[in-house]
Amino acid sequence: MTETASRPTLEAVAARAGVSRATVSRVVNGGDGVREPLVARVRRAVEELGYVPNQAARSLVTKRHDAVAVVIAEPETRVFADPFFALQLRGISKELTAHDCQLVLLLTEGRDDHARVGRYLAGGHVDGALVFSLHLDDPLPGLIRGAGVPTVFGGRPGWGDGTRDAAPAVYVDCDNRGGARAAVRHLVGLGRTRVAHLTGPLDQTSAVDRLDGFRDVMVDADPRLVVQGDFTPAGGERAMRELLEHCPDVDAVFAANDLSASGALRVLREQGRRVPEDVALIGFDDMLPVAEQTDPPLTTVRQDIEEMGRLMTRLLLSGLDRRGDEAGPAGTPAGVVLPTTLVRRASA
Question: In Å, what is the CA distance from 330 to each residue of 7, 325, 326?
Answer without folding.
Answer: 43, 10, 8
